[in-house]
What we know:
Layout: E1 4-7, E2 10-13, E3 18-24, H1 48-61, E4 65-69, H2 82-99, E5 103-107, H3 111-120, E6 124-127, H4 136-141, E7 146-150, H5 168-186, E8 193-196, H6 205-213, H7 216-219, E9 226-228, H8 233-239, H9 247-259, E10 264-267, H10 270-285
Amino acid sequence: MKHLLKAGNRQFDLATPICMGVINVTPDSFSDGGNLAKNEAGPFIVDIDKVLYKVECYLDQGASVVDVGGESTRPGSHGVPLDEELERTIPVIEAVRKNLDVCLSIDTSSPIVMAEALSAGAEFINDVRALSSPGALEVAANSSAAVCVMHMSGQPVNMQESLHYDNVVKDVSDYLRKRAKTCIKAGDFEHRLLVDPGFGFGKSVIHNYKLLKYLSAITELGFPVLVGLSRKSMIGEVVNRATKERVSGSVAASILALNNGASVIRSHDVAATMDAIGVHCAYRDA
């Protein structure tokens, strides 16, 4: 597995895993929707000061990347109009870039949002649809951004309705291998490409834990593996806790992912995740 990751003008040595902090500028994300709004009532308007404070906290806690998303992809969610996604994300990226030194990721499947975010200072593209939207692959290939392609069965609105795999680990691995090959044919992705098995995206609880247990099959593809386990229903179903009370379960899952080769942990709880990374590295290197 390649340890060097390039994201714009930045480089990360993934021999030590890193944490990606989550910034959802949405009213309806499953865990933190609406937290960054100016007002509880009325239309959703992003409070830039709240965003800057949260990103600064993430940096103090040790995050290396901050992932900005303007469209919820929780199960059952519907898409948002392009202009609304742009209004939510681009001012945030511009403000963070102006005030703080951090690698910014744009969590989107829209090639227009990708292009605008890169122009505004983003250096990382995180796409749950694996650059399958028309034009997305071209935007990513013509950039210098790090790019994460994820596996998802179906679309967020219906992805939990029909859950069937012949072999979930093999099926997900095969899909990510094909998408990676497609990316590499389209441009120079050397040290820029990551893969994500897509925990919770069209998978049952059992599917998710099979993927976690055999995550090494994903790392064997030869690309850094990003995982998003934070506070998800696969944790809630096991610990029987409300979304914001799943930190300990999320950390436990993150440790298992790290032991099985994950390089980037996407998290709502950066401090706890950085503790997990520290313990993992000490154990690994003992």
